[in-house]
Specification:
Elements (H helix, E strand, L loop, with lengths): L1 H16 L15 H8 L3 H15 L4
Length: 62
């Protein structure tokens, strides 16, 4: 009985210690192509408003 528990512990330990899955490698950084396509489908009026907002953000205050 003690050997079975010991064996189960080591089996679980090795399975967790050498698991090849690393979630930080699959973390999405920034908007993807679907977001870009969605923005391109916006109307010209909305696109011009967004451009104005972006330029206002990049301007330095006087």
């Amino acid at each position: 009985m003690l050997f079975a528990e010991f064996s189960a512990f080591w089996r679980a330990f090795v399975a967790k210690a050498f698991n090849p899955y690393r979630p930080e490698l699959h973390y999405m950084r920034g908007p993807g192509p679907a977001c870009r396509a969605k923005q391109m489908a916006l109307s010209p009026a909305v696109r011009s408003m967004l451009a104005d907002i972006r330029t206002a953000k990049t301007r330095k205050p006087s």
